[in-house]
Amino acid sequence: MVTAVPIRNGAPRAQAIRTLKRWIDEGVLEEGLPLPAERTLAERLDLPRATVGRALRVLEREGVLRNAGGRTRIVAEDRPARRSALVWRSAVVFAPSLDASPLHRQSGWSDWITQGIVAELRTRGHSLLTIDPERAGPEEGEALLRDRPLGLIVPEVFHRLAVDPAPQLDLLARLQRNGVPVVVYGGDPRLAPFDRVTSDHAQGAYELTRWLLAQGRRRPLLIVEAPTDVYWQPLRLAGYERAMREAGLTPRLPRVAPAFPVERHGTAAYFDRVARFAAGHLIEELQRPDPADAILALSDGRVFPLARACRLLGKRVHEDVAIVGYDNYYLDSWEREFVEALPLATVDKRNFEMGRAMVELLFERIEGRLPARVPWTRVIAPRLVTNEERPSSQVGLETTRNSADEERR
Q1: Rg (CA), the chain
Q2: Quick count: other Cβ atoms within 10 Å of Cβ 341?
Q3: What is the pLDDT of residues 221-278, one digit of tens each?
Q4: Do 4 and 41 meet the contact criterion of CB atoms below 8 Å apart?
Q5: Crossing angle, helix 201-214 and helix 232-246, to 10 degrees?
Q6: Distance separating alpha carbons of residues 202 and 235, to the nearest angstrom
Q7: What is the DSSP letter of 317?
Q8: Taking the CB of residue 194, how many other CB atoms lie within 10 A of it?
Q9: pTM listed for this prediction
Q10: Which CATH superfamily is domain 86-199+351-376+398-408 in?
Q11: Kind and range of the H or E element at 380?
């Protein structure tokens, strides 16, 4: 007879699923014996019989229960608890090992996304396991497929995973097909099959351009880098063009440059080469009869070589040419030791809140509050930051929206 106390937090179906799993794990519902009838379980759980029936069908699909014919169900011999209770009770985060605090002061770095994930999981009282995606091999993938964790959260698919993300994308798809909810970060089209959280890049560029226009800059130039089809570059271009047209101005064609050479910690000679590289791509725009009077850099780290490039071309930084960044990490950028000029403004994508939103989305999927078989996208509004503000590393969640809501408007 079932006498254990049911779990009361969460949506009704989620309560039933979690309680039944706990009763199985604790031996209240024994392996090899028929489960009590749905009506009896509904009474013990104090939930509608239809809700309990749906929960039981979920547990069958997950392999926790086995249908023994008719309405008889028994606890499966190879249930998750037999495989690895530690894994199936945990949310798995694809990220390097987590430190107690973020590695960087400013929230523009991706480790702030992971910190948000950890904070939200701990707030909810859930354990987590981390797997470094750069070191994960076939064995780790097969273990996840076998043990089926509570869910999988992937803050970075394309940044840390070096050359070919196809094996990891295949693993995520296989896990999802096997009933493991997957939430990823980013708007790349290859992530469309999964629930995901992404930043509103169009809004960020729009706010940044509007701010420049309010400062009297009428000829701002947007810098883009090849390849130009990276998902967020067209979005930023759209935001820039929208702000220009609303102001009654003709958008300038974006200046397309090959990707700047990138190093995590470069020398003065290396920085000088990057600045001269940038100057070669700016000379036409800064020496024409109607030269650009502002530059929207791709990110904060690009501001410093662009500032040096402007000086090489005889322009006074922030007087002749205002420069703004993106991502809000300029105080942690190694390039700033070579140029004093900081970006006048930047955009904070609010990575910490992005991580929390990923966990919220995961549990909405687990608890059945999202449409079945429909991947859901949550878009987080960024925050414009001027240099005078020197923002705190964490900012409050201002607004979010769902892509499906936008489509209905």
Answers
A1: 26
A2: 18
A3: 999 887 777 899 999 999 999 999 999 999 998 887 766 665 666 788 889 988 999 9
A4: no
A5: 40
A6: 5
A7: B
A8: 22
A9: 0.74
A10: Response regulator (3.40.50.2300)
A11: strand 377-380
CA gap 188, 165 in Å, rounded:
12
Separation of alpha carbons 376 and 378, rounded Å: 7
Is residue 54 a contact partner of residue 38, using CB atoms and an 8 Å limit? no
The owner of tokens 């028929």 is 34
Six-digit token string for 219: 């000829």
Q: What is the pLDDT of residues 282-318, one digit of tens each?
A: 999 999 999 999 999 999 999 999 999 999 999 999 9
CA distances from 206 to 1, 188, 232, 233 (A): 62, 20, 13, 13
- 289's CB contacts (< 8 A; 6+ apart) are none
Q: Which of 404, 402, 408, 382 shows the shortest CA–CA distance to 236?
A: 382
Residue type, 327: D
Q: What is the DSSP letter of 41?
A: H
Residues 6+ apart with CB under 8 A from 33: 74, 75
**Is CATH 3.40.50.2300 the right assignment for the domain spanning 216-343?**
yes
Q: Which amino acid is at 280?
A: G
Report the C-alpha gap between 385 and 393 in whole angstroms.
12
The H-or-E segment that residue 364 falls in is: helix 351-366
Domains of the chain by residue range: 12-78, 86-199+351-376+398-408, 216-343
Residue type, 88: W
Length of the chain: 409
- Fold matches, 12-78 and 86-199+351-376+398-408: no
3-state helix, strand, coil in the chain (%, to 5): 45, 15, 40
Question: Which of 102, 70, 19, 160 is CA-nearest to residue 355?
Answer: 102
What's the number of CA atoms in the CB half-sphere (13 Å) around residue 358?
Answer: 35
Domain 12-78 matching CATH 2.40.30.20: the answer reads: no
